[in-house]
From TrEMBL:
SUPFAM superfamilies recorded: Histone H3 K4-specific methyltransferase SET7/9 N-terminal domain
Spans traversing the lipid bilayer: none
Protein name according to UniProt: MORN repeat-containing protein 3
Gene (name only): Morn3_1
Major localization class: cytoplasm
């Protein structure tokens, strides 16, 4: 019986080109028709690992990690300065599936920025917002807005930490702490009930009345020890 050779199956050239173009590992810059470019690591033809992406429209640069073709883990997003043309940092922090997620810092302007928790590209969770007028809000955020029904701090700051006289409102517990802070640690103060009747998770018993002969003197003494140059009763 004669040997019959099976006709060779021909495939379109684009399939062979695509197979040869499958990217894996570290690659040099890949340029796109849109003007975008990427330099970094690949896995299964997707950006995966460490890399730098430069987008043309809107103009931006991302330096950081990728996961299955999307920004993931940690990275820094920058945009060009309209005056100098140099890239200036806008956001640095966590990413998941191409969205801001976890802990990160976002610069809205030179004197206004937010640092704290993010969820699906929005400020959500605990964070601090530094406003250009010098005021600071620290507390809970929900869907990019301040959640006024949650805990927050108002008072003095130093180096991004609570430092000096201040108040911390525990709306979930229905209490407020007022006293002196040193580098985010409360050193001396008083705690009392505050709107306990609307608190979401109040303690079983209210704060008992404490009778002190001279509360102001106690706080003044503590403040004079911690801040000798500004001793006064808050």
């Amino acid at each position: 019986m004669p040997w019959l050779r099976k006709p060779r199956e021909f495939q379109p050239l684009w399939k062979e080109w695509d197979r040869n173009a499958q990217k894996c590992g570290l690659r040099h810059t890949v340029y796109y028709i849109s003007g975008d470019q990427y330099t970094g690591e690949w896995q299964d033809n997707k950006k995966d690992g460490r890399g730098v992406e430069i987008l043309k429209n809107p103009a931006s640069r991302y330096k950081g990690f990728w996961k299955e073709g999307k920004r993931g883990n940690y990275g820094i997003l920058s945009i060009p300065d309209p005056e100098t043309g140099k890239y200036k940092e806008v956001y640095s922090g966590g990413w998941v599936n191409g969205l801001k997620e976890g802990i990160g810092k976002y610069n809205y302007s030179e004197n206004e920025f937010y640092e704290g928790e993010w969820s699906r590209d929005q400020r959500s969770g605990w964070g601090r917002m530094y406003f250009r007028d010098g005021s600071i809000y620290e507390g809970e955020w929900l869907k990019d807005k301040q959640d006024e029904n949650e805990n927050y701090y108002e008072g003095y700051w130093k180096g991004g930490k609570k430092h000096g006289p201040g108040k911390f409102f525990y709306f979930d517990k229905g209490q407020v702490y007022e006293g002196i802070w040193v580098e985010d640690i409360p050193k001396c103060g008083t705690i009392r009930d505050f709107q306990r009747h609307v608190a979401t998770d109040p303690p079983q018993y209210p704060v008992p009345q404490v009778y002190l002969a001279d509360t102001c003197a106690v706080l003044k003494e503590a403040q004079s020890r911690l801040f000798p140059d500004q001793a006064k009763c808050s």
